[in-house]
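job 3f2a | input accepted
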Amino acid sequence: MDLQERRQLEAARDHVAKVRARTRPWRYIFALVLAIIAAAISVQARRTADLLVLPGEPKTTTWLSALGQSGNRILEYGTAVAFFLLGGAATIGLGNKARDILQPSVGSAHAGIVRFAVVLAGGLATIIITLQLFSIAVTQLVVGGALTGVLVGIAAQQSLANVFAGIVLLMARPFQVGDTIGIRSGALSGLIEGTVSEVSIAYVRLETENGPIHLPNSQVLAAAVGPAGAVPSPLVVSPTAAGPAPAAAPRAAPAAPPPAASPGTAPADPAALPPGVPGTPTGPERPTAPQSPGQQAAQRDDDHPAP
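job 3f2a | predicted structure (307 res):
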């Protein structure tokens, strides 16, 4: 096989792959139609079996009456199982196809959410209808499922918080894949800067200088997010935020000590000493607060009247 033949073979394989990709949705749609037909046959077989149980001849006959009661029961349960298998396959296939179609236009994260929603809604509908086909009371299961859901929600509240936070981030789109952002949050211990490489259901992946970091969606949703450099670090305080420094108060000059008395000199009159100086008498008749010169002279005249 030469090079030209090999290229032709590869081109034919690519063409076949494209044709299969185009026809793949129709297979899932066809499986969904077959599931609906199987459910209708199961309901009709159950009604026919119930009519055959009644005493006497049934008032109406159907095309399934020839199978008898046992044959209709087998057909009822068999078609119910067929509905469950076909419905599950159609749900998963349509969810995958929706993700493949939306991924080039909205991104892998949004496409993953659409697939999750399709699979969840289709899976719940398939399970409920299958239980109805098997004549199982769904009310009790719904009550039990609600109680189980509450218990699971309490046990996995952190994971569910990340899931719902991821949905909000994908809807609000505060940043996109490829943006260089800074995230500041107390729960994340400060400021983290990096390039967004992925936004998934549970985590936001940042490419930093030290390697990739996966941040929980709930913490990112509760954090301050902005372009790199726009979010200030909590360790750096700007001068405008700190305010001008207060002016230093002038220091008062130290008070000069009183002159010491020379040896052989009589001590000064205590009444002549200003208040607050050691040696000044204290008491109710002589206040210790500073006085003006006039008040001091009047006080001396009162203490030493003229003869």
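job 3f2a | Residues 3-155 form one domain.
job 3f2a | closed
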